């Protein structure tokens, strides 16, 4: 019998207006607040999503925060998520990672694959200058490059708040390229500057792609145009022959360069986060960025 290990639930709260980390960082366009939750609540992820959604609505009602609910709020989408690096994790050592998403419809892969190059640093000024530009002849998926802060509460690392800044650029392709540094350098030219052989092969981290199910239940309205877009996601992945489940809740909000949210909206945003944590403390466990589980496992095995 295989033993299921539920590593936890990563909660991402992207709340831009209520937590600007550096008012001078005009390029910072999103901020994510993250909490890992007690995995025992997600042995059945559909029930976990439903129960946590009930908790969110209960806290929102107590705080007089309206919810703009989507149609079919708990109807899941399905993706496979993979991360690639060299045998010696050369990209990771330079702060970079390559991610692939394959989307499904009713269990059937949708044609095309999505790749992104992401750079992470604990220093905003470094992330803000990181090069993730798309190569000539290719078209990025989005009009602008995303730069965000990822804030993990109750961090495994220090038991408190841990902030990482990330910048990424996404591209959609009809099919997979060859998995070498040289082939991906055609997509992301910065890879030629990292002192890694262009012939170096890229391998799937931990030899596994997590299966992801995501629901997008709606938005929280904090007032003054400050909306928190919510996601709930679960990764299902086998590591060392054991089934690992990593669920998450998220809500995010873009920075608006032309507007500062008023103090009341920012306070409602912050108080909601705190109250959601306090409502049922048994949900919260120490955590880290969910991709780190795969990289940490690969480095230890």
What is the element layout, followed by pairings?
Blueprint lengths: L3 E3 L2 E6 L15 E8 L7 H18 L4 E3 L7 E9 L4 H4 L2 E10 L2 E2 L3 E9 L2 H4 L18 E7 L9 E12 L7 H7 L15 E2 L6 E11 L5 E13 L2 E11 L10 H17 L4 E2 L5 H10 L1
Helix pairs in contact: 1-5
Task: Give a brief description.
The protein is α+β, with helices and mostly antiparallel strands and 301 residues long. It has helices at 45-62, 90-93, 124-127, 181-187, 263-279, 291-300, and strands at residues 4-6, 9-14, 30-37, 67-69, 77-85, 96-105, 108-109, 113-121, 146-152, 162-173, 203-204, 211-221, 227-239, 242-252, 284-285.
- How many strands, which pairing sense, and closed or not: the largest β-sheet? 10 strands, mixed, barrel
Radius of gyration: 19 Å
- The dominant shape is globular
Instruction: Work out the number of β strands.
Output: 15
Which secondary-structure class do the elements indicate?
A: alpha+beta
Portion in strands: 35-45%
Terminus-to-terminus distance: 22 Å
How many domains make up the coordinates? 1
Mean of residue pLDDT? 86
Strand order of the largest sheet: 2-3-9-10-8-6-5-12-13-14
Low-confidence stretches: 1-26
**Helix and strand string, N-terminal first?**
EEEHEEHEEEHEEHEEEEHEH
The number of distinct helices, counting runs of at least 4 residues, comes to 6
């Amino acid at each position: 019998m295989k033993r299921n290990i539920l590593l936890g639930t990563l909660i991402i709260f992207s709340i831009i207006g209520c937590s600007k980390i550096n008012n001078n960082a005009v390029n910072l366009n999103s901020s994510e607040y993250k909490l890992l939750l007690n995995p025992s609540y997600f042995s059945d992820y559909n029930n976990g999503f439903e129960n946590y959604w009930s908790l969110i609505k209960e806290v929102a009602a107590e705080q007089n925060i309206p919810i703009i609910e989507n149609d079919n709020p708990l109807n899941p989408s399905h993706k496979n998520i993979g991360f690639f690096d060299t045998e010696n994790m050369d990209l990771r050592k330079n702060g970079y990672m390559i991610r692939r998403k394959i989307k499904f419809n009713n269990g059937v892969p949708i044609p095309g694959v999505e790749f992104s190059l992401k750079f992470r640093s604990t220093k905003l000024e470094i992330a803000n200058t990181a090069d993730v530009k798309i190569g000539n002849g290719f078209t990025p998926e989005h009009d602008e490059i995303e730069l965000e802060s990822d804030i993990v509460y109750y961090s495994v690392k220090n038991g408190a708040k841990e902030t990482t800044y990330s910048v990424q650029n996404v591209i959609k392709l009809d099919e997979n390229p060859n998995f070498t540094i040289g082939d991906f350098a055609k997509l992301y030219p910065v890879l030629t500057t990292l002192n890694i052989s262009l012939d170096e092969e890229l391998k799937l981290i931990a030899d596994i792609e997590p299966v992801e199910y995501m629901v997008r239940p709606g938005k929280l309205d904090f007032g003054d145009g400050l909306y928190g877009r919510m996601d709930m996601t679960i990764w299902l992945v086998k590591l060392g022959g054991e089934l690992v489940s990593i669920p998450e809740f998220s809500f995010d909000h873009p920075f608006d360069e032309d507007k500062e949210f008023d103090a009341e909206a920012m306070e409602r945003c912050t108080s909601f986060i705190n109250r959601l944590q306090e409502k049922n403390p048994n949900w919260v466990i120490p955590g880290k960025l969910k991709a780190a589980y795969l990289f940490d496992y690969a480095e230890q095995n």
